[in-house]
Amino acid sequence: MTKTVAIIPAYNEEAALADVIKKTLEYVDEVIIVNDGSVDNTAGIALEAGAELINHETNLGKGEALKSGFKAVKDDSIIVTIDGDGQHNPEEIPIVLKPILEDGADLVNGSRYLYGHEENTPAYRRIGQQVLDIATNISAGIKVTDSQSGFRAFSPKARDCFRFKDTGFGIESEMLVDASEAGLKIVEVPITVRYDVDGSTKDPVTHGVGVLLKITKDKVIRTFKR
Asked: Which of 79, 19, 69, 68 is nearest to 45 (CA)?
């Protein structure tokens, strides 16, 4: 049976991390926490909860955290990425894994919006996400409904196609672009999300503009290289 490894980037996630790890371990064989320069007890909690630990001495960003996590997986495991703040429901991991295990998918994107509007999403945030969805879809030549989702699964075939050029939250869009350019099969499945545990310190507007600029710049660079 194929081994499954969950990679969880974590920056100051001591409040919810133990619960996320324990629930995730019910559905995967191994959990890797990438402690991205946390100043709280994220590292200690990760070890106590039964996770493997990778430490960054300073906060390098989500893109770098995912890069370290993917690099640590040496075998042909299926990889699941899930956030450490409790927004995602680990009980939905089998939903995200199913297209890889049964249908030959390479990248499975967990989407909050696959079947329409997710009523708990703040309106201003959803507008920004829709702009990023459009930009990502144009850049990648695909059609996804939740380009900024961090709840995903990756086949062994997909693991080596990612550049991890973007060190921050633009990594979600970049990975979709990379997977598309590699000719991988990308599918979406419905997931739920909790916003009452959102610990993000990023302003959604500033974050959205920053990601949009990176997507646009990356598209221009890739076009001129062809």
From this structure: 19
pLDDT digits 0-9 by tens, 66-104: 999 999 999 999 999 999 999 999 999 999 999 999 999
DSSP result, 181-199? HTT--EEEEE----STT--
Tens digit of each residue's pLDDT (9 = 90 or more) over 26-63: 999 999 999 999 999 999 999 999 999 999 999 999 99
Among residues 85, 87, 83, 153, which one has the least CA distance to residue 120?
87
Mean pLDDT of 153-167: 95
Residue 156 tokens read as 């062994």
Half-sphere exposure of 223 (CA within 13 A, CB side): 10
Query: Of 99, 226, 117, 90, which Cα lies nearest the Cα of 154?
Result: 99
- CA–CA gap between residue 86 and residue 88 (Å, rounded): 5
Residue type, 143: K
- Could you tell me if 92 and 35 are in contact, meaning their C-beta atoms sit under 8 angstroms apart? no
- 16 or 124: which carries more pLDDT confidence? 16
- The pLDDT assigned to 85 comes to 96
Rounded to whole angstroms, the Cα distance separating 137 from 53 reads 34
Amino acid of residue 68: S
